[in-house]
Amino acid sequence: MPGKYFGSPFGHRRSQCILLWAMPKSLTGSTKPLARRPFHYQCAGGDSEEITTLMTFQHPRNQQFSARVLYYTNPPRQKNVIRKDPMPTIAIPSCDETIMQDLPLLMLYPSFCCWNPAQMHLPLSGVLKNVSKQQQQLSYNQRYMYGVIHKLGQLQDPYCFTGFVRCSLYYTQEQRELTKNFPPLAEKVQLNESVQLSSYMDYLKTQLKTKHNKITLQTEKLMYHLLSKDNYCIYSETLKYLLENNLCCINDIYEVIEQPVDYVLKDYVQDMTANRQRAEDGINQGKQTSDDNLVTKSSSEKEFFKLMVNSGFGKMLQSDDKYNKSLLIHSPESFMKQTIGRTITDWSIMRHADKQHKGLIEVRLQKDKCNMKSAKHVGSAILSWSKVLMLDFVYNCLYQHYEKTEVDLLYTDTDSIYMQVKASSYEEFKQRFPDYLQKLHFAAAGDITPGKMKLECELKEAIFVKPKTYSYVKKDGKEDVRNKGVVLSQNKEILIFDSYKRAVFSDDLIMAKNTLIRKTIHNDTLTMNTMTVDKAALDGWYDKRIMIDNIHTVPFGLYSKQFTEEDVMNRIMKNLASRVNIGIGQLKAYLQCTQDQLKTHLASQFYSGMSLMNYGVLWNLDHTIPVSFAKDNLKALCHYSNIQPMLVTENSSKCADLGLPKGM
After folding, report:
1. What is the pTM of this model?
2. Which residue segment(s) compose the domain that 328 sits in?
3. Same domain flag for 579 and 641
4. Among the residues of 290-398, which ranges form H helices?
5. pLDDT tens digits, one per residue of 23-53
6. Are 232 and 167 in contact (CB under 8 A)?
7. Which end of the chain has fewer beta carbons closer than 10 Å to its terminal beta carbon, N or C?
8. Do the strands 39-42 and 111-115 form a parallel or antiparallel pair, or are they unpaired?
9. Low-confidence residues in the chain, pLDDT < 70
10. How far apart are CA 141 and CA 144, in angstroms?
11. Both 511 and 569 in a single domain?
């Protein structure tokens, strides 16, 4: 279906005429499940202590202390938009939560080493920078991460490190332009009023408030952006891939947890995948022989084995700390006794009190202690590999053989990507790729090999409004809608494809109704009634990216200024002046040195791991002789020789205002 191509290759929110691809879900790899055994804590100096639980270390003197777990979550669904010209679009699912077959994961119960910057014997940030630059000089199929992703056997890791890293990352302007359609990393961000939005977003915000009295709230959101990321936790293999492919740059490393990797649950996943493949073959055989019983049986088996793998992943990322303790309280005395000193998170009346003040309420309390049973480091690594495989498909397959004017990424989900491609058919789309790339990235018909893409269906028209809120029309004319938080079966006449169009192109606010069943107990009598809740189901507002108009969006940070060491020094000068309540000009006179000389002075006193770029995160400024000791002699105390860098943890425990000592 050829057609003209118009518009900017920005990330879009809505699209017409879409081919949808899907990738099989069961791809979680690992070795046989390991028997639970105590951790072995290996500190940088070589001393070891046995860990009695997943989160608590036991010292020989029976002193307990907690381990800090570093991990990061799945990026949210990325929103994209529509084309007005008839042109085929393809949607390809990424690796799903369980795409870990034959990819190395952190071991379930490994020995691990936790470093802080003062304990780092090797400059890990320098190793990552140097090795990744060497890898960039090689052709793509000779790089280390290419071999890991595509399972080229046992490889020697040139980085000599695996685990989790807490670091600061940034993007050059060239990297921002490259990754603006599909940013590689997500982060929770709360946009305040100082963040500059587009003129269209200001207009839409006013329209929604004027026409529908809807106020857009600035809340914390998980979003893809291209702003610098400080104090960011990331899986080592993801970081290696990003650096090797020049998708981001690293400033400094603050803390690491080193853990060995292995093929966790590999045998189990391979067995489940083989069972799913047999079920898929049974479905095809049943369709050919018109055996409905075989089709039904095989379909059930296929879904069962898929859920067997996915449920394991879900438990790995289970938030044990978010579960509350529930109590049933019958009297005021029992309430006071059981809740004293505890944090009440919620409560509900199950039976109202009688004249003797006897009733029944459910009280939910925050846990005092939490036993972290889930292997979050493994679940986090799985999600990281999922993102890596999708990035690899987009940047080293798709964009290598299609210009950005020929393909647009419209919307991504955990296991899918909708894209618009300048091609008349799926076969024509695949012809651009060499045979070896087709074998690496695309599954054959009826094949459910984990990690490979397949064509799922073709769409004629679609509108993507925001994450998990979209509608599309299939090639056969059937409509489908998705709307998070709305009961679709109760709003079939309201949530139709045209409603999504009106929300986007006419600035309409579409309301829906959710009917819920409410149960109450009064005087030992159970009462059930329905309750209808009005909910704003659809509107055109979206603030996880900058809306250029009602179609095009770009990520926050695309055109922001790159953070430099000069910016840090300007911030340091400003903070020094405000600390003693003087102006910048007066501070420069008191310092008796230039800004560059102050920079050299501070750098000469840095501990291992300190740098200008982690000022405010790892270290702060400290006056050797506190200013409060001799406020009358401010000029002498502001001299550059009295200023030193100090670790945040050390500085926060130091009492700054000690009063004037005797004899001073």
Report:
1. 0.70
2. 324-365
3. yes
4. 292-316, 332-339, 376-393
5. 333 333 332 222 222 222 222 233 333 222 2
6. yes
7. C
8. parallel
9. 1-122, 193-194, 216-217, 521-524, 561-563, 608-609, 629-631, 651-664
10. 8
11. no
